[in-house]
Amino acid sequence: MTEAGTSRTATGEVAPSGDRDGGHRPSAGRRARDRWKVVFVTLLVVAVLGAVTWVLLGSRLLVVREVEVSGTRLATRDQVVAAAGIRLGLPMARLDTDEIRGRVERLREVESAEVERHWPATVRIVVRDRVPLVMVERGGRYHRLDRHGVTVADGTARPAGLPVLTVTSPGPSDPATLAALRVLTDLPGRLHRRLSEVEASSPESVTLRLSGDLTVVWGPAERSAEKIRLLDALQRTAAGRAARTIDVSSPEVVTTQ
User: Under the phi-then-psi rule, with left for phi > 0, alpha for psi from -120 to 50, and beta for the rest, what region is 42?
Assistant: First the structure.
């Protein structure tokens, strides 16, 4: 029998009951040192985060010093920079790139834009211009429209190399305009280069006028690949080359005049 709080070892010696599991309780001094280590590491992390935050948001080390613009031809660099509204000296981390992109894309000449941070101090704006496909004459001015029917530029001089669009109400919300433009985007280059006018009295009635006094009744914008193939095949025949009007509006029944 042993006294309470003690136990015998294999050799018969009496050992304190606190050593039964073979462990050692840390001393009060060691526990205090561990607590100070935790406090020190926490303070160090807070200090590092504070320094990083200050560098990013409060210092003059990482601020906007230059705005680069690329890809634009219709809009000038000054127009893009003005629309972007980026203040020099603003911390790079505070830039709202989505908001800047939205402002640039409100320019009528711009179809899309990307805004990129290039650390440490440059903002790059990459612009994709709208591409004029047709022109519309209104009130003595020539308006150039892109594939969406948006006016990208206008002036008193007739632009070279663009076919005339003839519709009742040209614009991005007009179904006849959109049908005519869809036909144009589907045309291969060899036909597009010959095009002088595209007319659409309705979305189902698109007509092309090509060089050589050839009129192509296209009909609706659908089935363009079939219509192009039929038109190419017909123009390789003597009858097709002599025709002044070719109607491919119904690919099942192609007629010539």
Answer: alpha
pLDDT at residue 146, as a whole number = 96
User: Encoding tokens for residue 244?
Assistant: 């002044």
pLDDT tens, residue by residue, 186-245: 999 999 999 999 999 999 999 999 998 999 999 999 999 999 999 999 999 998 899 999
pTM of the shown model = 0.71
Task: Determine the Cα–Cα distance for residues 191 and 203; give it in Å rounded to an integer.
Answer: 21
Distance from C-alpha of 199 to C-alpha of 210, rounded to nearest angstrom? 12
State phi, psi for 127 to the nearest 5 degrees: -105, 140
Q: Hey, how many other C-beta atoms are within 10 angstroms of the C-beta on 9?
A: 9
C-alpha 20: how far from chain center: 70
The amino acid at residue 81 is: V
C-alpha to C-alpha distances, 21 to 18, 90, 106, 153, nearest whole angstrom: 8, 63, 75, 87
